[in-house]
Design goal:
Number of strands: 4
CATH architecture: Up-down Bundle
Structural class: mainly alpha
Number of helices: 18
CATH class: Mainly Alpha
Strand order of the largest sheet: 1-2
CATH topology: Cytochrome C Oxidase, Chain A
Distance between the termini: 19 Å
Radius of gyration: 25 Å
Largest sheet: 2 strands, antiparallel
CATH superfamily: Cytochrome c oxidase-like, subunit I domain
Number of domains: 1
Length: 626
């Protein structure tokens, strides 16, 4: 039976009881750990949906002139696949890791604004559901994840209006989360944790939040202009009335290229956390990795037009952006050499997280090399809008990002749930996914060089594209098998009794492992004091008289580490659960439907959001017992 507290509002009026356990607690929680889990579950569900869309695409292209889906359905499928994987899977999956781990890694009890954190999750989830409701309300978006004008403004179906509104809603979630996490890292670090004692994962998270804060306003303006062109017949992107469709490309890619690093920097952070653990060495060149991540974020704002070489910007602009594209490879290469140096001479242990990390590095290097090719303008002219670009993008984002995400899931699973995933099944999944991934996207390089245009609904047999398309289709279904193995691993593991034989199963290095698994609601009985980078490692190991690293003998330290969770947590200030963030979030998609269908629905949605924000503002920060 759920325990319930009954707080009063500032006006003294009883509000609805708020559960602290049970199903209702997930709707009212402001605990960063629960919100991180909900982000992960929702993102993985969208990953499965986006994967099903990809399987339908590959089924359509498995042979020449097939008719698994028609041309319009195909346009909707590839658009929603791209939108789903970028905005509804990779970004929120990174948010899942950030929400759960950043407060633990910096020794905090929660994020800076817990209710805002809950609000950002519900807005993301409802925004994603709003986007997917388009399938049932006239058709899904069909203009590609990049929504190029004027095609996106002149299409008569409602799909691209859902696209503009859905991304505006999810953008609110990303902006709220970015501000929240940035303030958390800057202001809530434990005593002694200087910026150069912050774990790399948290550092990369901080860079990502600044990228979001500075790039989201650009795409927000562009989406409003797209919506106004479609809904109220303005002419921002209509060249026949003084508008400029190239303006959309500039604004989209001014967001879209920093977005690439918003997607991949979390993976870099995961790799940089896991490699030292399984190499049994500190990360080589910690400060170089930090500054290279910052440099990637900064330079990433100066390369957007390499997506636009064929748009007619002229030789001067193309040359400038070709040079900047080559330059951004330098800080990226720094990270790769740091990772290699970390492994060099290390006591390598190829447990499943390490396999995923090494696989991620290898796949990302392949994608990065093809990316450097795109700094050569004549080469890019040949490859643009072909399957070579599809291969490059997936080697970077899937190869570098998704492999790293699975590494993180396996690595931190015992911390989050108090159970170890099956090592055997995790390794089986890795090898199936590695083979399936390369069989899917490797042939696309060849298809692109053979001239197969991306977003092709079908192709004639005479072009000779059948064999490599069949290989790609087989590979995509192997990836699906690998994902099913992961799901089976999770189901089998969750049926086991909770509890770890060793609460430090990987011999980890960072602060989140100093607390119990899973951590208590308050994270730490006492806020830890940090004395070094890799604080947890330094608590476990010392140098003997000969300078050799040895483990601290059992019993040499007090039985109870005050930083360790597991105590009662009494007298610790924690924010009370609240349903008002959910109420405020519900109004946003209702307003979206109102923009499309009825001013009255728009007014209703605005009223719901205002009521939610009003209740949120008047709610006391800590529950008072009735």
């Amino acid at each position: 039976m759920a325990s319930v507290s009954v707080p009063r509002t500032a006006a003294g009026i009883l509000r609805r009881p708020t559960a602290t356990t049970g199903v209702w607690s997930w709707f009212t929680t402001v605990d960063h750990k629960k919100i991180g889990i909900m982000y992960g579950v929702a993102a993985f569900a969208f990953f499965l949906i986006g994967g099903l869309e990809a399987l339908l695409i590959r089924a359509q292209l498995a042979g020449p002139e097939l008719s698994v889906v028609n041309a319009d359905q195909y346009n909707q499928l590839f658009t929603m696949h791209g939108v789903t994987m970028i905005f509804l899977f990779v970004m929120p999956m990174a948010a899942a890791f950030f929400n759960y781990l950043i407060p633990l890694q910096i020794g905090a009890r929660d994020v800076a604004f817990p209710r805002l954190n809950a609000f950002s999750f519900w807005v993301f989830l409802l925004g994603g559901l709003f986007l997917y409701s388009s399938w049932f309300l006239g058709g899904a978006p069909n203009g590609g994840w990049f929504g190029y004008a004027p095609n996106s403004t002149t299409d008569p179906s409602v799909g691209m209006s859902f696209y503009a509104l859905g991304l505006l809603i999810t953008g609110i979630a990303s902006a709220a989360s970015a501000v929240n996490l940035a303030v958390t890292v800057i202001n809530m670090r434990a005593p002694g944790m200087s910026l150069f004692r912050v774990p790399i994962f948290t550092w990369m998270g901080l860079v990502v939040q600044f990228l979001l804060v500075f790039s989201l306003p650009i795409i927000t303006v562009a989406l409003f202009q797209l919506l106004f062109d479609r809904r109220w017949d303005t002419a921002f992107f209509d060249p026949t009335r003084g508008g400029d469709p190239i303006l959309w490309q500039h604004m989209f890619w001014l967001f879209g290229h920093p977005e690439v690093y918003i997607l991949i920097l979390p993976a870099f952070g995961i790799i940089s956390e896991i490699l030292p653990v399984f190499s049994r060495k500190p990360l080589f060149g910690y400060q170089f990795v930090v500054f290279s991540g910052i440099a990637i974020g900064f330079i990433g704002f100066g390369v957007w037009a390499h997506h636009m070489y064929a748009a007619g910007l002229g030789p001067v602009a193309n040359t400038a952006f070709g040079i900047s594209t080559a330059i951004i490879a330098v800080p990226t290469g720094v990270k790769i050499f740091n990772w290699m140096a970390t492994m060099y001479g290390g006591d390598l242990r190829f447990r499943s997280p390490m396999l995923y990390v090494v696989g991620a590095i290898m796949m990302f290097v392949i994608g990065g090399l093809s990316g450097v090719m795109h700094s050569v303008v004549p080469s890019d002219y040949q490859q643009t809008d072909t399957y070579f670009i599809v291969a490059h993008f997936h080697y970077v984002i899937f190869g570098g990002g998704v492999f790293a995400f699975f590494a993180g899931l396996v690595f931190w699973w015992p911390k989050v749930f108090g159970r170890m995933l099956s090592e055997r099944l995790a390794k089986i999944q890795f090898w199936i996914m590695l083979v399936g991934f390369n069989l899917t996207f490797g042939p696309m390089h060849v298809l692109g060089m053979q001239g197969m245009i991306r977003r092709s609904f079908t192709y004639p047999e005479a072009l000779g594209l059948t064999f490599w398309n069949q290989m790609a289709t087989v590979g995509s279904y192997l990836i699906a098998v690998a994902v099913l193995v992961f799901i089976a691993n999770v189901v089998i593991t969750q049926r086991k009794p909770k509890g770890l034989d060793d609460e430090d199963p990987w011999d980890a290095r960072s602060l989140e492992w100093t607390t119990s698994s899973p951590p208590p609601e308050h994270n730490f009985d006492e806020i830890p004091t940090v004395h070094a980078l890799d604080e947890f490692w330094h608590r476990k190991y010392v140098e003997d008289e000969r300078g050799r690293v040895v483990r601290v003998p059992a019993g040499a330290a007090p039985d109870h580490d005050p930083a360790r969770g597991g105590g009662s947590g009494h007298a610790i200030h924690l924010p009370s659960p609240s349903f008002w963030p959910l109420v405020a979030a519900i109004g946003l998609p209702v307003m979206g439907y109102g923009v499309l269908y009825s001013w009255w629905v728009l007014a209703l949605g605005a009223l719901v959001t205002v009521v939610g924000l009003y209740g949120w503002a008047l709610e006391p920060s800590v529950a008072e017992e009735a």
